[in-house]
From TrEMBL:
<dbReference type="Pfam" id="PF02581">
    <property type="entry name" value="TMP-TENI"/>
</dbReference>
<feature type="binding site">
    <location>
        <position position="74"/>
    </location>
    <ligand>
        <name>Mg(2+)</name>
    </ligand>
</feature>
<keyword id="KW-0460">Magnesium</keyword>
<dbReference type="GO" id="GO:0005737">
    <property type="term" value="C:cytoplasm"/>
</dbReference>
<dbReference type="InterPro" id="IPR013785">
    <property type="entry name" value="Aldolase_TIM"/>
</dbReference>
<comment type="pathway">
    <text>Cofactor biosynthesis; thiamine diphosphate biosynthesis; thiamine phosphate from 4-amino-2-methyl-5-diphosphomethylpyrimidine and 4-methyl-5-(2-phosphoethyl)-thiazole: step 1/1.</text>
</comment>
<dbReference type="InterPro" id="IPR034291">
    <property type="entry name" value="TMP_synthase"/>
</dbReference>
<feature type="binding site">
    <location>
        <position position="73"/>
    </location>
    <ligand>
        <name>4-amino-2-methyl-5-(diphosphooxymethyl)pyrimidine</name>
    </ligand>
</feature>
<keyword id="KW-0808">Transferase</keyword>
<feature type="binding site">
    <location>
        <position position="112"/>
    </location>
    <ligand>
        <name>4-amino-2-methyl-5-(diphosphooxymethyl)pyrimidine</name>
    </ligand>
</feature>
<feature type="binding site">
    <location>
        <begin position="41"/>
        <end position="45"/>
    </location>
    <ligand>
        <name>4-amino-2-methyl-5-(diphosphooxymethyl)pyrimidine</name>
    </ligand>
</feature>
<feature type="binding site">
    <location>
        <position position="171"/>
    </location>
    <ligand>
        <name>2-[(2R,5Z)-2-carboxy-4-methylthiazol-5(2H)-ylidene]ethyl phosphate</name>
    </ligand>
</feature>
<protein>
    <recommendedName>
        <fullName>Thiamine-phosphate synthase</fullName>
        <ecNumber>2.5.1.3</ecNumber>
    </recommendedName>
</protein>
<dbReference type="GO" id="GO:0009229">
    <property type="term" value="P:thiamine diphosphate biosynthetic process"/>
</dbReference>
<feature type="domain" description="Thiamine phosphate synthase/TenI">
    <location>
        <begin position="11"/>
        <end position="193"/>
    </location>
</feature>
<dbReference type="GO" id="GO:0009228">
    <property type="term" value="P:thiamine biosynthetic process"/>
</dbReference>
<feature type="binding site">
    <location>
        <position position="143"/>
    </location>
    <ligand>
        <name>4-amino-2-methyl-5-(diphosphooxymethyl)pyrimidine</name>
    </ligand>
</feature>
């Protein structure tokens, strides 16, 4: 049975097509895992399905080699084709019920939520969902049309209300990760903090040290 990491506040890194491509994605993901990332989500919006699959297969190779979970954003078809461990769906994507039915009980299904009403709705569908993402906690530039910022207070409330593990997401960097950690989410997701510049190993390692401190 595929499951989320047992450790509290695991680091969940998400790839970004602005910084990563078929030539560097394997190494970047590998470095992030070595730095402490436990879950890797492949996310791309502007590439063809063929390009995305090519990159996703490289991420699959890196995560399998280093025993990290591999999640594909939005696209259940690509997740299945790349032998991913799961898929992360948005509010307007394929309903979680159908994703679970198609991919099977052993397949991880995550769902994005952006307010407490959506968290409560996820609770009602928890038989089809393994975790929720909640955010954006802070302003983010990784999405063209981001949802309204939730803030830390609502993140803390979401963790209290949710009957599922919560992964905090959105504008999280080393400067604010401790503030997020105070809400005690199961996981903390980062994009730019891992991959925008510098060595992903050092970036993720620094975040891990801040969380452990």
């Amino acid at each position: 049975m595929k499951e989320l990491p047992a450790e509290r506040q695991f680091l969940y890194v998400i790839t970004d097509e602005r910084f990563l491509n078929v030539f560097n994605i394997y190494e970047a993901v590998e470095r992030a895992i070595l730095g402490g990332a436990k879950v890797v989500q492949y996310r791309a919006k502007r590439k063809t399905a063929k390009e995305m699959l090519e990159e996703a297969l490289l991420v699959r190779e890196a995560t399998k080699h280093h025993n990290a979970l591999f999640i594909v954003n939005d696209r259940l078809d690509l997740a299945i084709a790349a032998d991913a461990d799961g898929v992360h769906l948005g509010q307007d994507d394929l309903p979680v019920k159908y994703a679970k039915e198609i991919a099977g009980e052993d397949f991880i299904v995550g769902l994005s939520t952006h307010n407490l009403n959506q968290v409560k709705e996820a609770n009602r569908k928890k038989e089809f969902i393994d975790y929720i993402g909640f955010g954006p906690v802070f302003p983010t530039t990784t999405k063209e049309n981001p949802d309204p910022v939730t803030g830390v207070e609502n993140l803390c409330r979401a963790v209290e209300v949710s009957e599922l593990p919560v992964v905090a997401i959105g504008g999280i960097f080393k400067e604010n990760v401790k503030e997020v950690a105070k809400c005690k989410p199961s996981g903390i997701a980062v994009v730019r903090a891992a991959f925008e510049k510098g060595d992903p190993y050092e970036n993720v390692r620094e975040l891990s040290l801040l969380l452990r401190a």
